[in-house]
## 1
Amino acid sequence: MENHHFDDFDFTINDDRESVRDLLNMKFKQRCKRMKRRGEQYIYKEQSKYASDILSAFKNNIHLSTFVAPVQWGKTGVIISLIHKCCTDETLFINPNNVLVITGMSDNEWKQQTKKRLIKEFRPAVNHLHGILNMNFDEDFRDALIIIDECQIANQDKQSIRKMFLRNNLNNLDYLREKNIRIVQTSATPDNVLVDCLEYDNTEHYTAIVNLNLNDPTRSYKFFTDIDETRLKETMDLTYQPNVDKLFEDILSFNKPRWHIIRIPSTKKDADNETINNLELTAKKKNCDIKYHMMHNKIDDEIDPEQLLSERPESNKHTIILVKNKWRASKSYPDKYIGVVHDRFTQNKPEFATEVQSLAGRMVGHGKLQSKNPPIIYCQLRCIHEYINLFNNNFDYEKTKEWKKSKKPSYMNKMLDA
């Protein structure tokens, strides 16, 4: 957890603070230049704008903030921009040693991807579940920025984030003010966290929700509403062979080899094995390759998934990736060479946030759906349709009754400390 990149600076001395600001500005500008040379952009104008809005709220003595954006809109860019703005601002002091980017997910891929996007001086700040289980701050911990990514995960009473808050007195708003600790939580599906934040008045909490004009055909961000209805289908029970045959018809409808991602259900082992067996036998019959991305299996030991999926399969065959307990919230990957994605089938009550953040959610975003033959997406359609309604209602859960969320209080609930 500790960051030692700034150990040579004394932050009680103004000259040292200025030197750190200069250093961070230089490193930030250099990262922007490097990505521009590759034809990419580090931070987009809209991301910088929302980061500035949150910084302005901080300067108005706000210590708690929630940032909500649709799936794959670019929350990480806002996080990066906010860290940079806070640590280089001349009026609001945030100690760069005390910047933390945490999540309740136990997910090494999230950790690696987030670190990769930050400049190296802030990479020690990134911690997932295992990093926060024993996270304890010293008494002199202050002037801090704590960002909770995917705040819908492990957020209830008796769960990891709440326990960490209690250990470090972060549930005490007066303590946050005394120590100049700022907390930002982000998610595409904030659910009970956002509901609990409504208990705070405007002098205590600031909410920023991305305003997206879905009627603007020129926008680079593609939402679920941009997917042709013929390419958005209901998930199927793949223990039933005729459904597997139907799935492979879609897989083979792509003339050139692509990657096809199928999530294996993690409920009954017999169903898991039967699904895998059906897919393996059919893939062999149809001359398709199979790879596995599970707890103890990686698609490739050397190449990260984002890079691998950016090119056609080397085998020059349609390649099915069987996924289990991987690639949920936050992961980003290109869709140009993805053919079919099929999320897990379940007869249980749908978990709306989980479904939206899963494979279907990876298929939207900036620059997505550009191919003449975009991906075919199998998912729980009800969840997707209600997420569209939720977004159109500006995340007003009272107006979106059919969106099913947790009714349990989150770590932000004031009544937990009453």
## 2
Amino acid sequence: MLSIESQARVALDVRCFYRKSMNVPLSEIASLFCPSGVSPRMLNHAARLLLLAAAFALTSCASSGGVARKDTSRTFTTVVVDAGHGGKDAGAHRRYGPPEKVVTLDVAQRLNRKLRESQFRTVMTRTSDVFVPLDQRVAIGNRQENSIFVSVHFNDAPRRRIHGFETYYASPYARRLAQRIQRELLTLPGARDRGVRTANFRVVRNAVYPSVLVECGFLSNRKEAAQARSAAYREMLADKIAKAIVEERYGPGVYNAPPQPVAPPFQPTLGGGPVGTGRSR
């Protein structure tokens, strides 16, 4: 979404376009769409509306990026698994919880394994603690034919009592997948539903194939931060997301969780770190 300042610049560009290329006052253009005998005041008002409509059209095109989206929600054979943040971008980080970049990678790796065991081809945007720019993540996803894109994140809020799951999408083709993932996450004990919503996050906005971003709880909430530190809980998060993906493709009742391996050692940097958030989507 363009800022108010950017939208104002676009509106100014529209005005300049009409004046320079057509050399016709906007009020005269408005008169073409109005009945004869309309007062000059009404013509000026109509001209303003035309200007706003043109500005809105341009900002809409700019915000969507002109992506030609494809519906692979019922045919996909590849899942692009995106572990949010990484490297210099730690994401959310609180004193009593692990950095977001660490737990997103862990959940993403578990999800990747489960999807491979369910016979999907998978591609990960990162497999280690490295920084991958958002546009590069989108490009990785868009290069995979007949795929979907699932981005794993944890949330942050200024008030510690805020908690729950959120799932985001932009393409209408991703709505059903987002809803299914949210429903599965809500089967976890104590889960709170914060909704399935559309969003302007770059990894969902610029995706060709169905793309969702999953917020797996708030690291700013003490309880959910403690859960994120648990390998068993991260395994459950990955299992719920995997089940939703498999059943979105093949239908309800298809997914069988494979035996859980021994949890790998988890050594996040805990305590003493900066309190804050670095939100990039």
## 3
Amino acid sequence: MEIYSLEYKYFYLIFVLTNNKKNLNMKHIIAFAGSNSSTSINKQLAAYAASLVSGVEVTVLDLNDFKLPLYGMDLELSDGIPDNAQKFLDIVKSTDGIVLSLAEHNGAYATVFKNLFDWMSRIDGKLWNDKPMLLMATSPGARGGATVLEIAQGRFGYMGGNIVGSFSLPSFDDNFSDGKITNEELNNQLLEEVEQFTESL
């Protein structure tokens, strides 16, 4: 198995994104979770939803590859913007669409996502760059991360967000298995949102 550094993976991804759009006319989307859990259920949902988008190349990102110090004004003034915040923002700017599934911690964003969000917003207040976004959330509970989904829907539009589809998956353990949604009704709901997302690319 070949192991590459984050620097290599970052520059390779930017190369692929740029060349796909310029030379191959291939759409490219990114998928990631607002979580850094190694077993993230939101990452599983994001990867599944992205796999349903036809005719595109998909890159699934892991926030663990973009570690950042906790945002603080004093830190920004003394050390500037961390490289990983700029790298993630560059990827957002280079992609054709975003599939994002948010983890909900205490009724809000997970700390790792909020921290990334804050750092990127210091570079560009319209950080989502009007890229079509399929915004989702899931949780083990019956509300399926509905609270954090509502927060993001109310905020992202002010930050360059272009949410063209949204989806909440309740009771993850009961409705998701072997890399896919097992509840037919819920899966059909997601397929409708994926179709809207695909048409917007």
## 4
Amino acid sequence: MSDLLSGPFNTGALTRSGHQFGVDTGTVNPLYIEEYGGEVESQIIKTSVMKQFVNMKTVRGTDTVTNDRIGSTSLQAVTPGVRPEPGVAEFDNVSVKVDTIILARNNVHLLDDFQNHYNVRAELGMDHGKIIGRFFDEAMLIQGVKAARIVKGDGTSGTTKLPEGWKGGVQIDLGLAGDEIDPDKLQRGIEDMCESIETNDVEIEGAVLFVNPTQYYVLMRNDKLINDQFATGNGNYAQGTVLKSCGLPIFKTNRLPQEAIVGHYLSNAGNSSAYDVSAAEAKVVALMMMPKALLAGETIPLTSKVYYSDVELQWFVDSYLAFGVTPNRAEHAGVVNKVV
């Protein structure tokens, strides 16, 4: 036996590609974790429309992030000999709570299969990245739609009380069923939405327009957006591209709500099911939004881990994050809705 331990067949420590600088950590190979995590981060950036659009605040030491609201100050003319009356500025705030972890998990029973077949790690990373990216975008766009549907009022009958000078969102309802697939009527709805927002004294510079693929290709059939006599360099019918409408960049996405949602993973009693979608909200065919329309925060950024459980006798491949989002400035959002 001693000869075998010291003979030519004894290889000593194994050479394994996952050991960084040849060091066995005793748990899982660190380079394998890095490869998996890198795939998730890469895919969520590639597939997420909203990741680069929303200003995500870090939530630490609490579960809530808050924005203060200050109403406008009124002007007055000064009359000689008369003491000017002080103006009153209204104060308010809006907050969002981060209280749910969203997880993508796969269990891998054979460690060697996970280590040796690089396509396994790549496929898991891509799948996690896509599903998390889609969930993130859907949550953001749902709140964008809700922001656009805020109606300023006294806080009753479906209205929201806002500070002086603040305004609600803009909703444009198309006139007839099928208008959402008419190139001219859909474009007119977008124009009316932008006009209404600018009438509220809001600059639409920096805004983007989100439409689902059906409406994107409807707009592509609008000559005023494609024909170089009207819009030089704005799009190419043969290439299937249309770049702007009303000066706004157009993003094609499947992540606008298209049906009612009950029991969204981020909805709970504490936030009054804030992420659920009503049938009326699901009629959106175009959403215009600026970054200030939303207040978003995250407690756990996108994290990827691979670890082994002695109890479960298997490896866990996890990607998870914890974030929350809510409407912030309603006047920075607008929607175009179909009839049915």
